[in-house]
Structures are given as structure tokens and as C-alpha cells.
Automatic annotation (TrEMBL):
Originating organism: Planobispora siamensis
Record-linked SMART domains: S_TKc (SM00220)
GO molecular function: ATP binding; protein serine/threonine kinase activity
Chain segments carrying region Disordered: 255-307, 342-400
Alphabetical list of CDD domains matching this protein: PK_MviN-like (cd13973)
UniProt name for this protein: Serine/threonine protein kinase
InterPro entries per the UniProt record, alphabetical: FA58C (IPR000421), Galactose-bd-like_sf (IPR008979), Kinase-like_dom_sf (IPR011009), Prot_kinase_dom (IPR000719)
Domain of life of the source: Bacteria
Biased composition (Pro residues): 258-269
Length: 507
């Protein structure tokens, strides 16, 4: 079964131009493609006419497209017809968990933080009735943009053939909780506790059972060892309460500090590499299979330090000469000053510093939020506004959806109004805009709930991900308005989104 009749260069829906065939198996083909309308790369699955689970794949893709958590791969389009059926989704670039542990285990807190992000995203999906069912290290990506992405939600389970409409909700929850436990095990040890090694060394066993993470790797904190055992090895310790849902795993990892970007080497010359993007794998979960890499654009390995040879010696000599020169100049300057009875030269007279000590700040608590539309023709999803100040990045407020970034020129903007319950000196605002891109937003602070009653304190034309707005001069006010003058793109249309807001004020 093959879809090779579709060749690179073909265009679907007069929009998606197929660029590179990434993976093909079982009648399903993954392509890297270009969305020529929005000028961005996308992942496209195409299917042979006799692909046996076509309806199920398209249905699963459409269900996944309704999820808003930015850590889940976004589905843009899913079409089923007698000609070319396809699914279009986000193209993800970065390193998989398999890549990250390829040379050994991660730092324990970092491994836990990555899995915590996945667990929260997966809990959000389960709330919508969409399990994953085939979690592997290849499905978790640390992106080039410094965020976590979970690939293949809903779709891969159908492609692999493990999705079953008759599966009980409890069984699906338990399967994904165990999958999260295995991901945590892999991050903590660099080994995979399962029959399918997923490209990693198989976890060692003791008396027929997988060893606990602390038995495999020194330095694993006991609390992370316990959480892993509660998810996949509860029989290894008596009295442990099993973790049976992604939400329970997320709650157990809630206190773990969240991941920060890893150092990235300088970019190499652009080159086309084989890539998977959407976690396509149609082999049974227990079968051995080769690892297919996630795309790594502009990525190169740095040469190991320590072997500088002649170049290193020359550099060392240059450093020594510079140090000697600096010492000589310092001695000459000191002698000159002593000769002037300690009076510094006119051009060396000290000047008062123009910068002042940074102001101490505090987090403003008890925020409330509401959708804000100056024309009043809709409430801009006011019922979701509280989700932007609930302390959870897995929930969000978003505006109504529009056909153009400028609202069809019918209004000047829409936004999210934050009531801080008191007049404060706003110094810093941290906003998580989720997985959006494009658009323009103004940050406004003032004493009344209106556009005219607030002043612009900062502005950005790249709305997406987590952003920090730091005010050079604190602005006093009770109300903070996140004001979209242009809304970002969303599934071919436009809407604003805010996952979480944090405000810091001068003490």
C-alpha cells in the first residue's frame, strides 16, 4: 500500500505544497510542506485510497484541532474525500526526549519539568475525551523556541491501531498515566522501561521487575523516584497509591520548577534533514522499530574543549601579553595620580551615576479578569476570562474568532481587562500568549476600565509564547488592559489568546 503517486511539488487545496517526503508506512505518508497562504512550513499526512482507518484518522484530527493548549501540536485542517485525503498540522522543530537523553540521563529536575508540562497538556486533552495511548520519548519535543510540544495526540493512536472506541475512560487514563511514568523514567535514567526500547537502552531488571530510577542512576531525588514508581512500578513498594490519570501525574509534579531554555550552539548553514514532526509510526507498540529523527533546523554540535593545539598556545600568549599591558598601564596611571598629590585628572572626575538601584517588587494577588470589547457587540469570551489569572498555563482566555487580523476594520481592538483590586505601581507584567503567532498587542495601565482611561506602557508586534514586559518607569493604576490592535493567526483565522498573567508591582 503506497501513496507514492503523490509526488513532491504537488499542491493540496491550492495551498499546501508538498516539499519533502519524510516517512511512509502502511498507506500513510508524512510530508514536510509549505503553506503558501501563510508562508510557513506545515506537516501533512496523506493517505492511500485504500487506507483502512481513514475516517478514524480524520475524525481524530478534527477532535484534536479543538484543543487550545499550546503544548499540543496544533491541527490546522483535516479533509476526507475520494481524491486526496490529508491532515495538516503544525511543523515542530527541536530535539526529542530520545535526543536529549542520547548521551545519558537529564538533570532530575529538568526531566521532571519536561514531563510535568506534558502531563498538564495531556490532562487538558483527557478533559476533552482525547487520550494519546502511545507515548514514547519521540513524542516529546523541546522545541527550537524553548517550549515543550507533545506530538501525535489522537492521530498516532489511530495510525498505530491502538485506538478503540470501546476502550473505557479509566483504561485510557491509566494507559497515559503509565506512559508519563515511562517518560519520566527515561528522563531520569536514559533507559526505557518497556519491551519496545524506543531507541533507548532497555531498563535493567531485578527479579523480573524493572529497577527503580534510584537503582539505575545515582542522584535521583527520592520524591521523583516515588512518583515514577507510583505511575509504573507501584508493586515495587508497598503502600504506594498508584497514579492512574494524567491529572494525578501533573498534580504530583506540580511543584517542580518549569524548564528553561537549554544553551543553543550557533546556527549552521541551512540544510534539509530527514524529520518526523508529527510522530508518525504505524508499527505495533511492542515491535522493534528504527528511530526516525525530529527535524533539527540550524543545529550543530560544538567541538569539545581542550584540544586547541598551536592555536590554543597562540591565544594563551596573546592573553598573557594583554594582562601585562593592562598591569603596566595601571601602574603608570597610579604613579601619575600620586604625582598630582592624589588629585585625579579633570577628565577622570567622578560623575553621579544616572542609574538608580532597582526597586523591590511584589506579585499582585487576587487578580480578576474580563473580556473587553469597546463596541459592546459581544463579550469577547468573558466566561473564559478567569482562566487567564487562575495560575494554570494549561487553561486560557481567548477572544472571539475573526476573519482578519484587523477585525474587518470594524473596531480598533479587543482585549482582556485585568482588575488588580488596588492602585499599584506596575513594574513588570509576565504574559503567556500560548501558541499564537503574529498580531500586535499594547499593554495599558490606568485608573478606569476603558481605553481612554489607560496609557500605553509597552507594545509588541510578535504575540506568542511567554513574554515579559518591564517598565523603565513604574506606572500607577488599578487596571491593566491587554489590548490587541491586531489579533494573531489561529487555524486559518484570527483571535487573541492569553494563557496566564502575572503582575509585579513596586513594594
Amino acid at each position: 500500500m503506497s501513496t507514492s503517486a503523490i509526488e513532491p511539488g504537488a499542491k493540496l487545496a491550492e495551498r499546501f505544497r508538498l516539499v519533502d517526503r519524510v516517512h511512509e508506512s502502511g498507506g500513510a505518508t508524512l510530508w514536510k510542506a509549505m503553506d503558501e497562504v501563510l508562508a510557513r512550513p506545515v506537516a501533512v499526512h496523506t493517505f492511500a485510497p485504500d487506507f483502512p482507518r481513514l475516517n478514524e484518522v480524520v475524525t481524530a484530527a478534527r477532535s484534536a484541532s479543538r484543543l487550545t493548549d499550546p503544548r499540543l501540536t496544533q491541527v490546522f485542517d483535516a479533509t476526507e474525500d475520494d481524491g486526496h485525503s490529508y491532515v495538516v498540522s503544525e511543523w515542530v522543530s527541536g530535539d526529542t526526549l530520545t535526543d536529549l537523553v542520547g548521551t545519558g540521563s537529564l538533570e532530575p529536575e529538568r526531566a521532571a519539568a519536561l514531563v510535568a508540562e506534558v502531563a498538564e497538556a495531556l490532562a487538558h486533552a483527557h478533559d476533552a475525551g482525547i487520550p494519546h495511548l502511545c507515548l514514547t520519548p519521540d513524542h516529546v519535543v523541546w522545541t527550537a523556541g524553548g517550549t515543550v510540544k507533545l506530538l501525535g495526540l489522537g492521530i498516532d493512536a489511530v495510525l498505530v491501531g491502538v485506538a478503540d472506541d470501546n476502550m473505557r475512560v479509566d483504561d485510557a487514563s491509566r494507559a497515559d498515566a503509565e506512559g508519563l511514568g515511562r517518560l519520566l523514567y527515561a528522563g531520569l535514567t536514559g533507559h526505557w522501561p518497556g519491551e519496545d526500547t524506543c531507541g533507548l537502552p532497555v531498563a535493567p531488571t531485578d527479579d523480573g521487575r524493572f529497577c527503580t530510577p534510584r537503582q539505575v542512576t545515582a542522584g535521583v531525588p527520592s520524591y521523583l523516584d516515588t512518583i515514577t514508581c507510583r505511575a509504573i512500578l507501584p508493586e515495587s513498594r508497598r503502600g504506594l497509591t498508584p497514579l492512574t490519570t494524567p491529572a494525578e501525574v501533573a498534580e504530583a509534579l506540580e511543584s517542580v520548577p518549569r524548564p528553561t531554555p537549554m544553551p543553543v550552539p550557533p546556527p549552521a548553514a541551512p540544510q534539509l534533514t530527514a524529520s518526523r514532526s508529527e510522530g508518525l509510526d504505524v508499527a505495533p507498540p511492542t515491535a522493534q522499530r528504527p528511530v526516525t529523527p525530529i527535524p533539527r533546523h540550524h543545529h550543530q554540535h560544538q567541538a569539545p574543549a581542550g584540544g586547541g593545539g598551536m592555536l590554543g598556545k597562540v591565544a594563551m600568549v596573546a592573553v598573557v601579553l594583554l594582562v601585562m599591558t593592562a598591569v603596566g598601564l595601571g601602574a603608570w596611571t597610579l604613579g601619575r595620580n600620586l604625582g598630582n598629590n592624589g588629585t585625579p585628572p579633570a577628565d577622570a572626575t567622578s560623575k553621579p551615576s544616572s542609574s538608580s538601584a532597582p526597586s523591590a517588587t511584589r506579585e499582585v494577588k487576587s487578580l480578576s479578569a474580563s473580556g473587553f470589547d469597546p463596541l459592546g457587540d459581544n463579550d469577547e469570551q468573558n466566561k473564559r476570562a478567569a482562566d487567564a489569572v487562575d495560575g494554570k498555563s494549561s487553561t486560557d482566555w481567548h477572544s472571539e474568532t475573526y476573519d482578519s487580523a484587523d477585525f474587518g476594520r470594524l473596531k480598533t481592538g479587543v482585549g482582556l481587562m485585568i482588575d488588580m483590586k488596588e492602585s499599584v505601581q506596575v513594574k513588570e507584567v509576565q504574559i503567556d500568549f500560548g501558541g499564537t503567532s503574529g498580531g500586535t498587542v499594547e499593554l495599558r495601565v490606568g485608573s478606569s476600565k476603558s481605553v481612554d482611561g489607560t496609557d500605553v506602557v509597552d507594545k509588541t508586534s510578535d504575540v506568542g509564547g511567554k513574554k515579559t514586559f518591564t517598565l523603565d518607569s513604574p506606572k500607577k493604576g488599578r487596571y491593566l488592559l491587554i489590548w490587541f490592535t491586531e489579533v494573531p493567526t489561529y487555524q486559518g483565522r484570527y483571535r487573541g489568546q492569553v494563557n496566564e498573567v502575572k503582575v509585579l508591582a513596586v513594594k
